[in-house]
Input
Amino acid sequence: MRDPMGWRQQAACRGIDPEVFFPDGEEPAHGAKAICTGCPVRQPCLEWALSTRERQGVWGGCDERDRRRLLRQTRRSA
Ligand code: SF4
Output
């Protein structure tokens, strides 16, 4: 069976402290977003986070606020 999260094998964040991607409270996530910028699996990562309504952390270069905005835009254009 195909691993729906197989893209993680190529993730640029592998081995990096997860706290970078899950900053406390309102702490900016610039470090995580910078890592995502060069990640070869940014798109599937973001799609996974959107499809699962992941509420926390940075995925695919987007933090919680970015993902909420993307989901709102998607609903409006549907
Ligand atoms: S896009 Fe960011 S969070 Fe997603 S796998 Fe790549 S580095 Fe990790």
